[in-house]
Amino acid sequence: MSHLDSYGSSEPRGRDRVARPALPWPEHDLGPGSRVRQAYADQPVVTWTPEEYDKARADDQPTVVPGHPDFERAWSTGPVPTGGPDPYHPAGATEPDPYPGPEDDPYPGPEPEPGTVPDPSAHDPFAGATEPEPASERPPGRWRGRRRPIRGGGSAAGHGRSSRAGRNLPAAIGVGLALGALILVPLFTVIEAFLVVLAAAVAVGMWEMGRAVRRADARPPMLPLIAGGVLTVGLAWWSGPDGLVLGLLVTLAATLVWRLAEGKAGLGRDMTSATLIAVYVPFLAGFAALLAAVPDDGHLRVLVTLVAVVLSDTGGYAAGANFGKRKMAPTISPSKSWEGFYGSVGAAALGSALLIWLLFDVAPWWGALFGVAVSVAAVLGDLAESMIKRDLGIKDMSNLLPGHGGLMDRLDSILFAVPTAYLLLAVFVPVVS
User: Fold this and answer.
1) What is the DSSP letter of 47?
2) At how many degrees (to 10) do helices 408-428 and 298-323 cross?
3) Which of 70, 78, 126, 406 is spaced 20 to 30 A from 351 at the CA atom?
């Protein structure tokens, strides 16, 4: 299929495109119904054959070599970057080179000698290429060699650095390791510092959620919400489950009073979103504070929970990327497959069975059951956030973490996993003190 005209015309732009003279006026005069556009449409039509186009290319080599905007417009099958005036309007105007540096050119050539004019054919990846099929049988508008990657949005953009999930894999790994160190170092050194990290994560997560729900015209008051969320985590640390519930009630009451002071317009919508944020982020995250506050082995309980979630995510990614075929929830998260889910459950079960047996001297089958339950909860948490984001029409909660999106995009699995882990460990590993 030929590439269409950038002004919306249905005329092809390949070898069979219509040759018209360059226009001596700027492109803003080409609006619909203008006399200039009508004059351009009244120009005589001349159709080029493939042989005539090859001859024109040989006569005007500098304007149609690969990398020039005219060439890319004529032969690209994907989006073409534009950085300036169209080269057809006015005559002689040029666009910036879409490959300004040698590091950006996927087909680098030899450097020209000083004082010499570069040979355009040196950068032509198709120079000397043989015709694979007759020109009459070739689709119009398609070049006879392999497709040149288009910088700035083509199918090959970012291919060398992106994973199959569309993420920047090196950045994702680096940020993941940094987040792991930020959690584990205070967890095994000064446990109170872990509480500070948890409270900061809750505050950032609530800010991201409040920012996201604005797309649904909800305006929850963020100041009492964030302050109440941090208070909820602190009360869970010092007072246990009763403090966690009390913190949630205080947060909702303070938010309601604050919102009533602004008037009753949109009150139901704003309080619904505020309740969702208060329950979803600080209340569920408070179970991590309950785990860490257990005397003697609280840090180990947090560790086995995080390891189970990481194993679940890693196993699901590996199995889904290599064997995923059957979609698990195509309307919610099209990238998830049942094969990836089985990989998540299997990896979490095996790793948790070994780790809980080594750390708590619990029978491996109880550890495997713990891993299965935590993995299922983590997957449900991921699907729950995907459903929220799909309803709001966003891909990530924010762009705070390179390769991951927002902090809530990392906490979604953990928030559903920590209440499950807290309940199961309370049964499997009773508190001794």
Assistant:
1) B
2) 120
3) 406
